[in-house]
């Protein structure tokens, strides 16, 4: 996995061969196939390992007010920084954007179900919020090599809370 990640950090997945991985890792092809079916399987396993497991982590992902914990997001980022910088960057996996968005949509869904009883409004609200969140993260990772995640979290917090009414008033 480390050998694959080193290669993936440098080039797109379409350009990575199993031969490249096994040479870099110092293993033979049969060892690779013992654990993975192809290069996409390696990427899938890495992505799965850094996405929170909703059932296991539901309590720690939400703060005492049943809101998504920005502290937790910071901890997740710090633990998986080398992956997020690449996966959400310009050469990252577009499917990862959807995966992480869907995980967090499901996580915050219970908090919004009491506010939006109409399913369509709930779905649009969740999509809007998580698309904006992932969009800001992606923008950050394409602009900075080593983003200040604490500052980013503060900006997102301000956008979601203090600044929301100002932005809405400017737009409409």
Automatic annotation (TrEMBL):
InterPro entries recorded: Homeodomain-like_sf, HTH-type_Tx_Regulator, HTH_TetR, TetR_C_Firmicutes
Domain HTH tetR-type: 1-54
Keyword match Amino-acid biosynthesis: no
Top-level taxonomic group: Bacteria
Record keywords: DNA-binding
Entry keyword DNA damage: no
Residue ranges flagged as DNA-binding region: 17-36
Pfam families, per the entry: TetR_C_8 (PF14278)
Protein name according to UniProt: HTH tetR-type domain-containing protein
């Amino acid at each position: 996995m480390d050998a694959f990640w080193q290669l993936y950090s440098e080039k797109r997945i379409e350009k990575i061969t199993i031969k490249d991985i096994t040479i870099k890792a110092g293993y033979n092809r049969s060892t690779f196939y013992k654990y993975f079916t192809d290069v996409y399987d390696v990427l899938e396993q890495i992505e799965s390992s850094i996405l929170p497991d909703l059932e296991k982590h539901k309590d720690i992902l939400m703060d005492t007010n049943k809101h998504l914990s920005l502290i937790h997001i910071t901890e997740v980022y710090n633990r998986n920084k080398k992956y997020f910088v690449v996966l959400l960057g310009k050469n990252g996996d577009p499917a990862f954007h959807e995966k992480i968005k869907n995980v967090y949509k499901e996580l915050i869904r219970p908090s919004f179900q009491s506010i939006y009883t109409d399913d369509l409004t709930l779905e649009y609200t969740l999509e809007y919020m998580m698309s904006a969140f992932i969009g800001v993260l992606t923008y950050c990772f394409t602009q900075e090599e080593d983003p200040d995640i604490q500052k980013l979290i503060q900006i997102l917090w301000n956008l979601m809370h203090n600044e929301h009414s100002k932005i809405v008033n400017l737009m409409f």
